[in-house]
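User: I'm putting together notes for a lab meeting next week and I want to include a structural view of one of the chains we've been expressing. I don't have a solved structure, so I'd like a prediction I can at least talk through. The sequence is below, exactly as it appears in our construct file.
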Amino acid sequence: MPLDRRQILISAGAAGLVAGVPALASAAAKPAAKASAGDAAVNARLAKLADTILESSPEFATSLGLDTGAKAALRAKSSDSSWAAVEEVARLSATELKALKAMPEAGLSHEVHINKAVAEYALELGVEAGKFNYGDNSLKTAMSESATPYVVNQQNGTFSSAAEFLDSQHPINVKSDADAFIARLHGVAKAIDAETDRVKKDAALGVIAPDFILANALGQFDGMLKVPAGQSRFVTSVANRAKAKNIPGDWAGMATKVVEAEIYPALARQQDALKACAAKANSDAGVWKLPQGEAYYGWCLKQGTNTTLSAEEVHQMGLEQNKAIEARMDGLLKAQGITGGTVGERMIALGNDPKFLFSDDDAGRAQLLAYLNSLIADVRPHLASQFNLKLKAPVQVKRVPVEIQDGGGLGYMNSGSLDGSRPSTYYINLKSTKNWPKFSLPTLTYHETIPGHAWQGAYLTETGRLPLIRILLSGFNAYVEGYALYAEQLGDEMGMYEHDWAGQLGYLQAQRFRAIRLVVDTGMHAKKWTRDQAIDWAVQNSGRTKQSMTSEIDRYISTPGQACGYKVGHTEINRLRDKAKQALGPKFDVRVFNDILVKTGAVPLTVLGSEVDAMVARGGKA
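Assistant: Thanks for the context. Below is the predicted structure for the 622-residue chain, given as structure tokens.
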């Protein structure tokens, strides 16, 4: 029912869109020349597709701030989580792809040509997803980076995301908002039951999550169901916010009734279904064991990297880059007199050094959050050396909610609201501060906030220069995560580690970690590595804690291929930059190049390459 956290990564990009769901961008943009007949036809088709997607994704409409005016009814609605809805999306993908491909390319403007190419790529992923009759794989999930063979796992499913969505995304300013919140509570129960039906359907096909994934998820269910209904966030969120807005009504009582009578029973039914699966589960980590497993992983790699690279090619890329980054780290460590053991062992020792750790208690967590805020403030004055763009990009820092931290990601960002009332939110998992030695935090912060994801989202929020279809289909993983990894690199190139040798090691460790992902993801899903084999390899090479690497490996098991997009995208962005530098010579301006990366928006890597080529053809001008 609610959004996966990646679905709203760049959702703020609809700022400036008018009249709910227009085909083209903001009122702030310059008046456009009259569209050609070809442009008008494509624009109309894409606008209709955007409207269809939005109508079937009410939570996305809420996140975008488009559940107002003519779309106000969407605020009280929930997405259909049934298997029939997945099949309908597959049919929609096929119909729309056929229609778009039939439209001639000749005569299209540059902008519309890009929009058409982006939509066609996304729809192709959706059509290909329809070949697999299990899991949660469709146009929507592919474009949100959340495709998974297991409908419910330790990090996916309504059980883990509904309360956070309703609390942080669903607005409560007037009585109708609170009424809509209660309506969506009914929708939560229906979504859980629909997902339970799909878990049972998939189990009959032999699609069952590994035993350790199910054990983690079941532990989360135990924790949730132990909380009295009246104390759950489903209740406290609406009650507290309605009270703060002086909205009369027994909101706590109404919400408690729904939680007790509908949501908790639905959770108990899902828990029973997962227990039944756990009784049949084994510890095989990879999707090779599933129906059409090899083909399915091929599709996962395509949607994760937006390339046609094979599993073996991705694996070898990871091994080569891991080795190259290790050599750089070795040199830095030796320069500090740290010479004993492998690079991974030396980084483990560094990560255990008390001088780099925050205390593993509430006081330490508060200090860590304050440190993250200081990193964001410190990097802002340096942005002018890398961008001509002038963006505000406000960010707030929050810990991952305690009730979902066991299965939650280690760090991630959700974009802010369209009207600026809610800034981008940088989440960090603080189950244990030992997972976050101080030297590891700058690069993570640059990745998630500035000049990374929050900067990407801020361009869209503050300019509104993309059509709605491009916002809805904005989850091109290799671009989104590849750019954020490139943003980590910019932190180094801006001189943020000039007097921080440990921070620079943390940056290189993070880069190496993404190369490691290529190895372990393909290792498990294509080469039949075990979970323990992947964890051990990741710990030995990354120098990170076993606890954090276990969480990461389990994430890759649940969303195969997604983690490969980071380094593949980063590698391609650097290749394009080197190509442009060589072609332009002294005319090359890194600020123009970086602006192009941000302004192009989320696109397949081939489209990004064409935009960089166009910049070169303009002599390096914006």
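A couple of points you could mention at the meeting. Residues 175-204 form the longest helix (30 residues). DSSP finds 24 helices and three strands in the chain.

User: Perfect, that's what I needed.
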